[in-house]
Amino acid sequence: MPSPVLENETDHRWKWFKNCLGALDGTYVRVRVAATDKPRYRTRKSDIATNVLGVCARDMQFIFVLPGWEGSASDSRVLRDAVTRPNGLRVPTGYYYLVDGGYTNGEGFLAPYRGKRYHLSEWREGCMPINKEEYFNMKHAKARNVIERCFVFEFDHLANVENHDMLESPEASDEWTAWRNDLASQMFGMASGDTNSQQTRSTATRRKWTKFEEDAMLSVLDDFVARGM
């Protein structure tokens, strides 16, 4: 089992997500199949591909990979197979992974609020959350981005899982939704308090980055990622 987020976590991306083990998502890998099989492997974008589930820890190490599903299969269906198969993904009770809006928000899998701004690109250019759901989604997206970064690297390794009580199937639940709502309220409440305490500070010296500066910074960050830094 990967190391969960602890109570004394200092990483601003993860500190709200106590007991979180990492993140997961599906990705498409193009394949060649017989003409008779193409309808099953055709994705929503008409590519012929297999739907691969990847699960990673916070340190960008893959801990579980499930290849082989047809491109037409939904992410939720692939996840259900991963959890229910004998040697599949194991999620100890009380722990969870961050998932995107294509998955069910249920015990063991914390999803963002649907119908609210979520993707990191939506928080640029000074756009700030206006309610607890958007604030939760922003924090969720920043942490869950670890799986997106993992997919640009080669699948490294699979890790064994310790023996714990495990979830048997990913299911939606009112209790899990209520917990997410409480967490979002705590996040937004603290953020609002921080904002109010800073309202007296001058913002006259603030400026937005130019497009050139932003592109230059992204180039440097991409180089760091490529070099494994």
For the structure shown, list the relevant keywords.
229 residues, 32% helix, 5-stranded mixed sheet, alpha/beta
Instruction: Please estimate the helix content.
Output: 25-40%
Stretches where pLDDT is under 50 for at least 5 consecutive residues are 155-164, 199-206
Radius of gyration: 19 Å
The oligomeric state is single chain
- For the biggest β-sheet, the strand order reads 3-2-1-4-5
Number of strands: 5
- Whole-number mean pLDDT: 80
* C-alpha termini separation: 24 Å
How do the SSEs run, as a string of H and E?
EHEEHEEHHH
Question: In this structure, how is the largest beta sheet organized?
Answer: 5 strands, mixed
Helical/strand content category = alpha/beta
User: Could you say which overall geometry the principal axes of the C-alpha atoms support?
Assistant: globular
Quick structural summary:
With 229 residues, the chain is α/β, with parallel strands linked by helices. 32% of the residues lie in helices and 14% in strands.
